Recover the amino acids of this structure.
């Protein structure tokens, strides 16, 4: 009580310093547990441009506030927002007294979200595809449901990939130039250090960038804005890691003008949720700021997050039924330990120097120089002239026998022949006895090659990407008038991306000869400048195990934007525009034997110039009800990944590759009241000229000119894709009492292909001195109307939360997810699907019909499913120290569900697909990804 009286008197002292005719609002913000004042808390008056920060005493003051009803929002990272309805009288200062902020339980949920985002493990060195990481600290009830409740099912906001959102640290874009996606692992495990975040949803304006159509995330690591204090935590979970420990300390701004923050964490597991998925991650963070005077400060941030984790295989239904729900084909026993052959390593430190210039009270200019470097590696086994070591290789499975047909009579099914049935049963028994990788057998095979003086039969290698990125940017913000704000920025980025295959382990062999056993003569050479090159154990141990391919991708980008925001009594609106210039180039470091004239040295430069325009308007129906409309049109350069489709061995580019054309809009009805908040949004986006690339081995896709049945390993490019995403979003939150809160969220979307794009295949076997770009055009793929893969397109969530005044709380939510579809093969939906590769006239298979084709090519829709999640926590204050625990149980009912999957294109024509499916036990059925069963997360922490 004494503290409350003292705080109120202190606020009253501030009031007497104003003229009695001033119209304003003042108050003091304190922590609910410690009752200490909170500095750098953001106080803003809704529907105006008025925003201030609390001072060292926790006091905020607004001057020249419009009279009448106002909504004041008080917010700070890690604390629960306060939304206060007040009545302002002209010529008077409204004293709010003490405003108490409580701990935000959703900030503790962020600590477990990393178990979702880091489960997104692609087979290449791309960034993350999940959008859950974009929403880690969002206060929007719909976005919280999307991240915490639906993220485990790979739900994507508006059906969009992360490349259509922008993630920044201190205003510096973190999306990779290679594919446009952020790499969440670059700051994984540093949840405490990255809590200060600002979000925009969809097309809403950001103060830092023009942004994409998905939204923006700005992570602020300026040392002076962190609340002073220390935090220790220890966590346990059964997801992709088992244990985590974290420590963080923030000094606050000292009287000498210095502030610093340090944080460190470790995460590890011998085995995660799926078999053989090892995990080892360490992270360090440091931020320091020197304030020279009230106008100038200099900040330095360093982020290091090293992460190594074993992947889990996608499996067909056949393999999963044999191996079990948690089966993973990527690992095997070696010396009594589980060894995974598919590890992903991310190690890319970030160094950032930022100058903060407060030009005037209404104008700021922040300038940063950033350097990011390091490596991403994805390991796998390679075998030359030896048996495939994959236990799920199709010849090792029962379906190889039970799906057999007579090669001379396509109508003669042999899968039910007693001999094949017996062979299938034997294959099943053999698989169960040898269902993991046999490391010892590979070492034994290599010992045999050593005795014969031959090259290694098996090696373990990684596909490596070593990026070096320099970024320089400046962001300008100015309040030009009481109702006009201007934002502008310029960013330059320079990338040198070194890509190569690197041998990690010769598996007991003496050496490996760098040739392609599927080619002959000079064509077999990986590098004609170093023919018949041998890689020895000495070279591997010294880190010089490069082989197969070796090249640089070079890129320079410049982008600029301006934005004007106008605020009036009934209407707010904004206008923004952007310009981007992108330059790409490939530099080959090997002269490949197949592409001897177009693989070595620097390629031509490819330049794209792009622009964007967007605007929005908010109509204030009342002080608590709003109608918001946003629209945008922009163009986007193709990614490096898609421009050079076969960059490993040549500098060919996709012909006539155009920039994407993106049109998007949304309309929202919003209610913001102290007890009730809601948003319903209708959205639309159309993306034209998109490109996708993939690699696979296909049978029967080319003319059978050499008796090979038209089989080949190919690089597929699908060009000119048009995607259309339309849908609705709903988020509602109601504080029934001071202790009970209800929430309701929903999403409904129709995300479809909206045209029939062109398909082409690159076949290296067709390359020659006169054909250096062996691309075969297959014409349109009839994709229009098919659903886009990538997560559920329908989702709903209902939650209830009880928060006790004695600082314990519990919550539950029930979720429904539906309309998730299999990723389809484009090639199978071209006219080539019906063409008989052995027919000299190129005619269709005689048994092929459009009706049967439609049945075979019908897109699979996964089963709908329900997920129930529980959360809870408790905190205690002992003197100046706070102890707490946070716990979640996800998928309480242990539901088994698919999160994604893809069609295999090994069978490339009607006859092969029809025979495989008709057998009842297809050898090349779709492969699926599955979500976690019942999992838990427990976090113990202490703040002091």
């Amino acid at each position: 009580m004494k503290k409350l009286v003292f705080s109120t008197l202190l606020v009253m002292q501030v009031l007497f310093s104003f003229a009695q005719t001033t119209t304003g609002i003042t108050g003091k913000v304190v922590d609910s547990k410690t009752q200490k004042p909170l500095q750098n808390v953001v106080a803003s008056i809704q529907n105006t441009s008025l925003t201030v920060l609390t001072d060292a005493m926790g006091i905020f003051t607004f001057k020249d506030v419009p009279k009448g009803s106002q909504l004041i929002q008080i917010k700070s990272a890690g604390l629960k927002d306060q939304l206060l309805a007040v009545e302002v009288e002209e010529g008077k200062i409204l004293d709010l007294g003490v405003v108490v902020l409580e701990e935000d339980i959703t900030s503790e949920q962020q600590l477990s979200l990393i178990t979702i985002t880091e489960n997104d493990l692609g087979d290449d060195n791309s960034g993350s595809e999940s959008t859950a990481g974009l929403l880690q600290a969002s206060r929007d009830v719909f976005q919280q449901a999307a991240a915490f409740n639906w993220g485990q099912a790979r739900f994507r906001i508006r059906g969009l990939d992360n490349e259509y959102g922008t993630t920044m640290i201190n205003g510096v874009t973190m999306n990779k130039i290679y594919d446009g996606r952020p790499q969440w692992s670059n700051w994984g495990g540093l949840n405490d250090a990255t809590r200060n975040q600002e979000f925009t949803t969809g097309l809403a304006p950001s103060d830092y960038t023009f942004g994409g159509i998905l939204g923006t995330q700005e992570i602020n690591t300026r040392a002076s804005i962190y609340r002073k204090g220390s935090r220790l935590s220890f966590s346990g979970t059964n997801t992709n890691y088992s244990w985590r420990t974290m420590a963080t300390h923030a000094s606050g701004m000292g009287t000498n003008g210095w502030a610093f923050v340090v944080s460190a964490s470790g995460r590890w597991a011998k085995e995660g949720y799926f078999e053989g998925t090892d995990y080892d991650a360490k992270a360090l963070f440091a931020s320091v700021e020197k304030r020279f005077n009230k106008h100038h400060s200099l900040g330095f941030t360093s982020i290091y997050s090293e992460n190594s984790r074993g992947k889990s295989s996608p499996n067909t239904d056949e393999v999963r039924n044999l191996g079990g729900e948690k089966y993973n084909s990527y690992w095997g026993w070696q010396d009594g330990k589980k060894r995974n052959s598919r590890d992903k390593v991310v190690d890319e430190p970030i160094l950032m120097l930022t100058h903060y210039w407060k030009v005037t009270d209404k104008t700021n200019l922040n300038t940063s120089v950033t350097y990011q470097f390091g490596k991403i590696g994805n390991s796998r086994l390679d075998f030359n002239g030896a048996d495939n070591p994959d236990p799920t290789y199709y010849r090792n499975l029962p379906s190889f026998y039970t799906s057999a047909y007579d090669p001379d009579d396509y109508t003669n099914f042999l899968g039910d022949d007693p001999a094949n049935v017996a062979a299938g049963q034997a294959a099943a028994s053999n698989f169960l006895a040898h269902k993991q990788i046999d490391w010892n057998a590979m070492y034994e095979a290599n010992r045999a090659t050593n005795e014969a003086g031959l090259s290694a039969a098996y090696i373990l290698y990684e596909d490596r990407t070593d990026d070096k990125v320099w970024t320089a940017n400046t962001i300008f913000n100015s309040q030009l008038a009481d109702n006009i704000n201007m934002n502008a920025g310029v960013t330059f980025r320079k990338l040198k991306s070194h890509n190569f295959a690197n041998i990690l382990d010769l598996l007991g062999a003496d050496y490996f000869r760098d040739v392609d056993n599927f080619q002959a003569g000079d064509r077999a050479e990986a590098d004609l400048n170093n023919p018949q090159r041998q890689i020895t154990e000495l070279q591997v141990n010294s880190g010089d195990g490069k082989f197969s391919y070796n090249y640089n991708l070079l890129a320079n980008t410049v982008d600029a934007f301006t934005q004007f925001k106008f605020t009036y009594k009934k209407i707010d609106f904004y206008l923004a525009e952007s310009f981007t210039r992108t330059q790409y180039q490939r530099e080959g470091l090997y002269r490949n034997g197949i592409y001897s004239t177009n693989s070595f040295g620097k390629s031509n430069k490819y330049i794209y110039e792009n622009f964007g325009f967007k605007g929005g308007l908010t109509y204030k129906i009342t002080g608590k009800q709003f109608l918001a409309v946003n629209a945008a049109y922009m163009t986007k350069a193709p990614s490096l990944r898609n421009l050079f489709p076969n960059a490993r061995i040549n500098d060919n580019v996709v012909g006539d590759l155009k920039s994407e054309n993106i049109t998007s809009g949304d309309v929202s009805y919003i209610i913001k009241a102290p007890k009730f908040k809601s948003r319903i949004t209708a959205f639309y986006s159309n993306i034209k000229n998109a490109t996708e690339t993939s690699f696979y081995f296909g049978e029967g896709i080319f003319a059978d000119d050499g008796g090979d049945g038209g089989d080949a390993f190919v690089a597929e490019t699908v060009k000119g894709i048009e995607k259309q995403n339309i849908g609705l979003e709903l988020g509602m939150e109601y504080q029934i009492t001071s202790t009970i809160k209800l929430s309701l969220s929903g999403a409904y979307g129709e995300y479809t292909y909206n045209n029939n794009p062109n398909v082409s295949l690159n076949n290296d076997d067709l390359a020659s001195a006169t054909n250096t770009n062996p691309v075969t055009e297959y014409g349109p793929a009839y994709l229009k109307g098919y659903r886009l893969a990538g997560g559920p397109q329908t989702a709903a969530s209902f939650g209830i939360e009880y928060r006790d005044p004695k600082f314990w709380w519990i919550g539950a939510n029930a979720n429904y997810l539906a309309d998730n579809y299999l990723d389809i093969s484009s090639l199978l939906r071209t006219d080539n699907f019906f063409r008989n590769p052995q027919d000299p006239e190129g005619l269709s298979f005689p048994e092929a019909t459009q009706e049967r084709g439609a049945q075979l090519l019908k897109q699979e829709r996964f089963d709908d499913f329900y997920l129930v999640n529980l959360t809870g926590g408790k905190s205690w204050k002992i003197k100046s120290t706070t102890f707490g625990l946070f716990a979640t149980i996800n998928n309480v009912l242990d539901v088994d569900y698919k999160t994604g999957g893809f069609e295999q294109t090994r069978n490339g024509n009607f006859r092969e697909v029809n025979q495989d499916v008709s057998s009842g036990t297809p050898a090349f059925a779709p492969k699926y990804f599955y979500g976690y069963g019942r999992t838990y997360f427990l976090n113990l922490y202490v703040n002091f």
Summary: The first strand starts at residue 24 and ends at 31.
